[in-house]
Amino acid sequence: MTLSNAWFPTLIVAPVLVPMIGTVLTLIMGRYPRFQRVVTVVAISVAFIAACLLLYLTNRDGTYALHIGGWDAKNGELGPLGITLVADQLSALMLVVSTAVLLCVMLYAVGQGIRDGTIDQPVSIFLPTYLLLCTGVCNAFLAGDLFNLYVSFEVLLAASYVLLTLGASADRVRAGVSYVMVSMVSSLVFLAGIAFAYAATGTLNLAEMAIRLQDVPDGTKGALYAVLLVAFGIKAAVFPLSTWLPDSYPTAPAPVTAVFAGLLTKVGVYAIIRAHTLLFPGGSMDNVLMVAGLLTMLVGIFGAIAQSDIKRLLSFTLVSHIGYMIFGLALSTEFGLSGAIYYVAHHILVQTTLFLVVGLIERQAGSASLRRLGGLVASPLLAALFLIPALNLGGIPPFSGFIGKVALIEAGIQDGSVLAWLLVAGSVVTSLLTLYVVARVWTKAFWRPRADAPEGELADAGPSPLLDGSDADDVAFDDRVDVGRMPVGMVVPTIAMVVAGITLTLWAGPIFEFTDQAAADLTDSSIYLNAVLGGGR
Q: Contact, 466 vs 110, CB < 8 A?
């Protein structure tokens, strides 16, 4: 039985519409937490299934486009004026990985909440907001025009602010205010870029804009690209626009930090890839991106070395490894772009997994500070759940992190320019330093006896990283009645994420074949243009 193309309109709308409907239902039924959980699981599961089917269709038939509103192009006189949703291999892959991560993190959060829930916190708002976040992420990957992409970013901002400040502790509100201010600056820059692009081309549809930009003077195109790069670079945490991230993410609950680290920065990376390949091909900003990628790698990893809190350490490694994706994109070759796409998928899974493991460490030991941790190797399951993604992040063979880095390094060597060789050297140094960072965490948190830790007798006061709104005051470790217990609802989703990362390694060959084709389609913009302006395929 083959999947008919007639299903395509339903499939491309489902990842956006179903979570949106789930948001409304869970918000209305806030007093019925079991109903909220069921609706959330069903909504994200449907989005994941639809994404998998879209992945199959785009791999089989190519790029699809859907014009909502009935204002399709007619006789070549006028481009699509309504909302355009476009699914190609890149967006379908991002949808599959993102919805899988969203589902696992949601189950993890529910497991954490069931174990430690209190009636004093506004937990009924968590799942509706989480579904709204899912809506924004999926819509961003499918957006076929700049304004729809801007709306997606604003939906993400609204949802992420609520999730970041859940519990209303002083640290979370302070970090949330900083995050919102930075995001608002990014949104204002993006909105200015939209206005400039419309003034130059008379359209916001990406396909039409790509055609009309060919007649725009090079100086104007360069200015437009620079404005959009600043807006997307802030969201992707590309240096020097990344200083906000390490101060914002670590204060959030473990599941929130995990989904932020795994997905939100990658939406910015996706937007840069789309703009670079579709709107501004030709490599006019390649050197700038190469320098930014190199500095992002090095500054991020040097920042990670200086940290003693695992959350802040991982936040800096998150910034660092964004540089690998910018590296592959800046080469402007199919091979480099393919490596960047593979690395994006790899990093979403691995970085999310590590933050989920940090939540388990907090539950097991009462802290995420290396000054207070030790002896965690006594829990073999927790040790394995940390070690596998940590080695993956460090690029140890045969894991997907090693495979992705080798592909990017090979693409840089093929380029042969001075900047490309500097990026190759920088990527090797960053990989070695990443391995050093995770080895330091392993040595101090797992191998070292807790009694040898400088503050081993202390723990954080809050018993619930998700639901408790108290500040993280210091208490005696023995006063934490919940330490040493890892709920099954938190462990099982973490195991699933570790398995997903291993799957990316085991299926590296077929996945790279897919990313090679995705990169080829991105390089040949006529495929995207024909799908949007030529009837939907």
A: no
- The answer to whether the CB of 63 falls within 8 A of the CB of 528 is yes
Query: Which is nearest to 61 in space by CA: 116, 127, 1, 8?
Result: 8
Query: Count of domains in the chain?
Result: 1
Angle between helix 310-330 and helix 400-415 axes, rounded to 10 deg: 40
Residue 412 and residue 424 in contact, taking contact as beta carbons nearer than 8 Å = yes
Look at the block and give the residue holding tokens 């004026």: 81
Residues 6+ apart with CB under 8 A from 54: 11, 12, 15, 64, 87, 92, 95, 96
The answer to whether 328 and 293 have CB atoms below 8 angstroms apart is no
528 contacts 207 by C-beta, under 8 angstroms: yes
CA distances from 481 to 26, 471, 475 (A): 32, 17, 11
Which amino acid, residue 156? L
Tokens of 265: 């920065």
Six token digits for residue 282: 């030709």
- What are the φ/ψ torsions at residue 253 (nearest 5 degrees)? -60, 155
Q: How many angstroms separate the CA atoms of 290 and 323, rounded?
A: 9
Q: Which residue has the tokens 């914002």?
A: 248
**Which of these, 317, 346, 349, lies nearest to 407 by C-alpha position?**
346
Measured distance CA(153)–CA(132) in Å, rounded: 12
User: Are the C-beta atoms of residues 297 and 353 closer than 8 Å to each other?
Assistant: no
- Express each pLDDT in 425-475 by its tens digit: 999 999 999 999 999 999 998 888 887 777 666 666 554 443 343 444 566
Supply the DSSP symbol for 239: T
Identity of residue 166 = L
* CA separation for the pair 470, 461 (Å, rounded): 8
Instruction: Please identify which residue in the block is written with the tokens 């660092």.
Output: 320
458, 351 Cβ separation under 8 angstroms: no
> Token match 């207070």: residue?
372
DSSP letters of 95-110?
HHHHHHHHHHHHHHHH
Structure token digits, residue 439 = 């080895």
Question: Which H or E run contains 260?
Answer: none
What is the DSSP annotation of 283-334? -TTHHHHHHHHHHHHHHHHHHHHT--BHHHHHHHHHHHHHHHHHHHHHT-SH
480-516 pLDDT per residue, tens: 655 667 788 889 999 999 999 999 999 988 999 999 9
Helix axes 508-523, 400-415, angle to 10 degrees: 40
Domain that residue 309 falls in:
5-533
**CA distance linking residue 403 with residue 407, whole number of Å:** 6
Name the phi and psi angles at 230, rounded to 5. Answer: -65, -45
Distance CA(147)–CA(213), nearest Å, equals 17
User: For residue 477, what pLDDT band results from cuts at 50, 70 and 90?
Assistant: low
Find, among 330, 311, 299, the residue nearest to 430 by Cα: 299
